[in-house]
């Protein structure tokens, strides 16, 4: 009896019909198919035709491999017509129509598809209609679909819960995947986009190790060690959130960035919780949590490379890329060394530094208790064992010191609203605090970060003029690690 493989069907559908499809796929280089959960997650979305595009394996090579294994091949190079129908509770799926060329028509269809997912419709059913209507989709269209959901009243937290499902809809169909331009090849070594790509490559290699350990039934010590090696992921996310996102906020790309930042926070929190809790025997529930976390990390890599970085490439000016490159030095590396080396950006950075130095050499500042030159005041502030940040009365970041570098501070945040430099989850708290300062309801706010051996105090105080006019808020950050031994000695 003959057996067939359909290139229009998903990998999971073909494997379910003929388990030996796994062997053929592995021989073609699709090693991920054997990793725990990959067949049921990505394999339930990606067809064999899409796999050929995504992994750059020629169709004729795939066809030959399946035929050599005794399969009859159908649908190679074709696109399936949609046969999926929405559930009875949703509107009927419209009949197949030519792909719309006008942006408004494309956006309307794309938003309907994302809404169907948000309303709980099966991913594969929606994806069939997406494949029918879209040959490719741009990062801008994806971001706009999420922005429209938020603008229409859907809470950011709800979009955040569904964003992995949303992005799974687009696998194999983004412009970068179809044109194979997502790699960092050709960019200077220090280009911020190239840095994030190298970090993602190293992250994926570590995730492969975790998947292999899970498949081998590794114990708590091995899994704990592997997950601990993933902790620098927070440094990777900090670059994305604090160097890249403020520029996108400035270009009006807001909602999708809030969603991504929120997911980053969830991933980091779950990673920390798992590392702290791993001990003794590892039960199935914990292994399931680890596998789910690995899949979320992989999905975030996809979103960064297929949606986030393309948005940056399309929106950023040369000066914004140069500024991100300059400020990279403030952030710790993630998995690989952060290479420097981008001549144009280095020249720009030197020019900016010289301009700042020239500005400091002019003029003096008359204070209530004396007079200082700008250069003198700048040098004195650098000697303070504190991080100071001043937010003016319009909630704009105007000044900071960073000699202690307790927290990274990119120069690019100057002149930006403070909301563009904080995680979306804490913005309501910051707004409430500043409102209390302005009204006089609160004199200060103190937060302690109990880091082992080096506690950090963060003090927020309103700044008032002699006429009691609100001028802004000052953040004072101080670490006490060096003081603790001396204090203990003095106390006796």
Please identify which CATH superfamily of the largest domain we are dealing with: nmb1532 protein domain like
The CATH architecture of the largest domain is Up-down Bundle
What is the CATH fold-level name of the largest domain?
Four Helix Bundle (Hemerythrin (Met), subunit A)
**Structural class category:** alpha+beta
CATH class of the largest domain: Mainly Alpha
Shape: elongated
Q: Layout of helices and strands, plus pairs?
A:
Blueprint: E1 3-6, H1 11-17, H2 21-27, H3 48-55, H4 59-68, E2 71-74, H5 103-118, H6 123-133, H7 139-151, H8 156-169, H9 175-179, H10 192-215, H11 220-228, H12 233-250, H13 255-277, H14 284-315, H15 318-327, H16 343-360, E3 364-367, E4 370-373, H17 374-383, E5 387-392, E6 397-400, H18 427-439, E7 445-449, E8 456-464, E9 470-479, H19 483-491
Parallel strand pairs: 1-2
Antiparallel strand pairs: 3-4, 5-6, 5-9, 7-8, 8-9
